[in-house]
Amino acid sequence: MKRVGLTGGIGSGKSTVAHIFEVLGIPVFYADEASKKLMNEDEELKNKIKKAFGNNAYLNGELNRKYLSDVVFNDHEKIKLLNSLVHPATIEGALHWMQGQTAPYVIKEAALIFESGSNKDLDYVIGVKSPVELSIKRAMARDNITEEQVKARMDKQMDAESKIRLCDYVIVNDEQQMLIPQVLALHEKLLELAAKN
């Protein structure tokens, strides 16, 4: 079974692409959702977060997202610290999930595949590429935030172009080229590669 990463910048449309793969019967691991779940349910991780950021990081046993994001948002070192706690747990969760799958290939959808080092556990990485203006527009609509807030988030991630250059395959999501035929072509290619093993 091939392990395939799916990544892209904010608002690139990687979740949309992931859903198309799911429609084709390919299991998808959503790293962002998984990390949120782990931060609420994994006792070991919860204790590490409390130790690093104080007991206010949790309210009634639930992650206090507002408090935590206020603490880390403008502090590069604190973001690094939080990521150093959450990423290993999420990567381990993904590997465990992959072992239970039987499809020819599986997809791990994650914004920070290269930043977290999880690309080392993957056979291929697909990048979803989108023009910056369109990505900003999508993120503003999806998260109900301002252009400045989207740009601030983008500044904290690896440059989208640099990320795309590291990928094995690229899907263009610019609302000019059709998305489904690109995913279908890549699906066929990945099935072919999986069959060779």
Automatic annotation (TrEMBL):
Stated name of the protein: Dephospho-CoA kinase
Gene3D superfamilies: P-loop containing nucleotide triphosphate hydrolases
Pfam families in UniProt: CoaE (PF01121)
Positions with a binding annotation for ATP: 11-16
Keywords: ATP-binding, Coenzyme A biosynthesis, Cytoplasm, Kinase, Nucleotide-binding, Transferase
Catalysed conversion reaction: 3'-dephospho-CoA + ATP = ADP + CoA + H(+)
InterPro entries noted in UniProt: Depp_CoAkinase, P-loop_NTPase
Segments passing through the bilayer: none
